[in-house]
Amino acid sequence: MSLPKSLDILYGGTELLAKYVSELTDGKFQIQPFASGELVGAGQIADAVANQTIEMGHSASQYYYGKDPTFTLGNGIPFGLNARQMNAWLYEGGNDLLNTFYAKHKMHALPGGNTGGQMGGWYRKEIKSLEDFQGLRLRIGGLAGSILAKLGVVPIQLPGSDVYVALERGAIDAAEFTGPYDDQKLGFVKVAPYYYYPGFWEGCAAVHFFFNLDLWNDLPPAYKSALTAAAAAANMDVLCKYDAQNPDALRALLGAGAQLRPFSQDILDAAWTASHETYDELSSQNENWKTIYSNMIEFRNKSYAWWQVDEYSYDSYMIRARARK
Amino acid sequence: MSLPKSLDILYGGTELLAKYVSELTDGKFQIQPFASGELVGAGQIADAVANQTIEMGHSASQYYYGKDPTFTLGNGIPFGLNARQMNAWLYEGGNDLLNTFYAKHKMHALPGGNTGGQMGGWYRKEIKSLEDFQGLRLRIGGLAGSILAKLGVVPIQLPGSDVYVALERGAIDAAEFTGPYDDQKLGFVKVAPYYYYPGFWEGCAAVHFFFNLDLWNDLPPAYKSALTAAAAAANMDVLCKYDAQNPDALRALLGAGAQLRPFSQDILDAAWTASHETYDELSSQNENWKTIYSNMIEFRNKSYAWWQVDEYSYDSYMIRARARK
Asked: Fewest CB within 10 A of the end CB: N or C in chain A?
């Protein structure tokens, strides 16, 4: 697992997969989970799976953005799908497309968890408009970092363990992580209390179980089926746990002094434009990206047309009714 | 399965469970699916499972509303949870609570599918305000029907197969079914073109796999685990298929003449009030209801506080950006 055990919901997905597969095979098929760094580092899982240093990994595919930005598509891109749309896209064709790409990297993948919508991170000072993004040293990586750089942000890559001290000392101005449940553990509220939403660069973040392709292909059918069903159950479980825990965590963070702030319209609009320009550039340069991105974005656009009518109007009423009580 | 094979996404959940369980047990544990009416009628599954006429069933628990309104809580109530919240509630405690209730009816249940948000049905004439609900003969059953009756609607129970002719002849004024993908097959658009949203009486509809409690308890651990993992995978699969198919179906329905209309504010407000009055009445009369309902509604209220900040603000921006393009 490319994360530490302290991210217990995501790491719990790894453990749940192992537990299910053991139970489903009467203990014959054992998977032994290791946290980030115990066998290989977070960013080395794709290589380690490909060369069979490890047989499988559990990871956010955006860690491998440097190999090919296409890896980000399995994880979630700025202004991409929300969590339900992501699952629908993955299981109804998207994951098969991703696997034609992952096969080039000697891997086969199954969806293995989702954080749901993420927050836009913790800021030492208020960000009132796009101007406040100029020169802002924000801990963020990958594709989202390169898009925010077009808006004037200085993306900084830092290991999670170093972020608190960097924020406290002002070595960085802001840091994004995931959402309230995970963010709460890191204590950023004490040193960077402005907590922005929505996390437009991750409408959701999916993680995958990655298998060495040859080893996957050699598995007996019952074991493939055990991994597939167990991965689906773990995928569901992770999202359910975030959805169940984030409300209390947000309330606790507000109690601890978090100042909730929405990103301003000019920031969202500039980020939307920069994101889609980046996607068009990538589509013109990279066939892997083009094939999968165009499929995903068509799904997104169709899905939101329906979402707006039903899910969104239901949620709108529920939110208004709640406020009135 | 308490539905016909023509509802292929929900019936597909039954088939997927059977397929997974067979694969996971190397063909040793076989489940044979039957559609509604092949062994027992749609409304008889709870009794048939309890008395072991059948060993398990796949059904919307609201069919058994007549036994105890508490059955509706596993399915979805007016102004209840949306689909993601429903899964989070079920897997993080709600389903255990439901199982303490189902045990009184000699059943054990696992979540086994979700339609996502439903539509508010098909109407021969426009419903411009609460006044137009007076005397309106609407095909709807169960708890939602009894709540709408407080608003002046005349709830009519009709088998799905009889609805089209009743609408065509004006024997009923309106009918609710599920959402675009299923509704499209029934052709209601030709005889009742006004298609209302949101389906406030079903923010989502969950279905469950029901097992005879004694038979469930006697299963070997590996078989329990196979059913649990397979049910989770089927639960996910059903929702993903609806989410993937509804957008195209809505577009096709609009092409066929469907007139999309939002329910008016006075209807939603009156229905909200009538629903919560009904829930309070039930809580004062029925301990089963009170225990599970109060847990669910606390979850709903907490969840929407977080949903509003992040998921909803993300969806809001995505919908606005899409409209601007």
From this structure: C
Q: How does pLDDT run across A187-235, given as a tens digit for each residue?
A: 999 999 999 999 999 999 999 999 999 999 999 999 999 999 999 999 9
Asked if residues A193 and A258 have their Cβ atoms less than 8 Å apart, the reply is yes
Residue A267 has pLDDT above 80, yes or no: yes
The C-alpha of B317 sits at a distance from chain A's nearest C-alpha, in angstroms, of 8
Determine the residue of chain B that is closest to A230 in CA distance. B229
Range name among A140-144, B172-176, B299-303 with the lowest pLDDT average: A140-144
| Res. B323: pLDDT tops 90 | no
A 129-188 residues inside an 8 A Cβ radius of B: 179-180
% residues pLDDT > 70 (chain B)? 100
Residue showing tokens 């598509």: A73
What is the edge-to-edge ordering of all strands in the sheet holding A154-156?
A: A154-156, A137-139, A174-175, A122-123, A194-197, A259-262
To test the contact with chain B by mutation, choose from A16, A17, A19, A24 the residue with the greatest count of B C-beta atoms within 10 A, namely A24
So what's the pLDDT on residue A325? 62
Shortest distance, CA A77 to any CA of chain B (angstroms): 13
Kindly report the backbone phi and psi dihedral angles of residue A38, in degrees, each rounded to the nearest multiple of 5, phi listed first.
Answer: -70, -35
B7: DSSP letter: S
Residue A141's closest CA among A238, A46, A69, A232?
A: A69
Domain boundaries, chain A: 8-116+203-246
Q: Are A112 and A231 in contact (CB under 8 A)?
A: yes
What value of ipTM does the predicted structure carry? Answer: 0.97
Tell me the pLDDT tens digit for each residue of B4-18: 999 999 999 999 999
Q: Tokens representing B173?
A: 């004024």
Residue range A8-116+203-246, CATH number: 3.40.190.170
From CA A215, how far away is CA A212, in angstroms rounded? Answer: 5
Tell me if B151 sits within 8 A of B274, measured CB to CB.
yes
Residue ranges in chain A assigned as alpha helix (H): 8-24, 45-50, 83-89, 95-102, 142-149, 160-169, 180-186, 213-218, 221-255, 265-285, 287-309, 311-324
pLDDT band at B140 (very low <50, low <70, confident <90, very high): very high
Residues belonging to chain B: 325
Report pLDDT for B42.
85
Closest CA to A229 of B230, B30, B293: B230
Residues of chain B positioned with their CB less than 8 A from the CB of A116 = 84, 310-311
For residue B250, what is the nearest residue in chain A, using CA coordinates?
Answer: A306
pLDDT computed for residue A298 by the predictor: 97
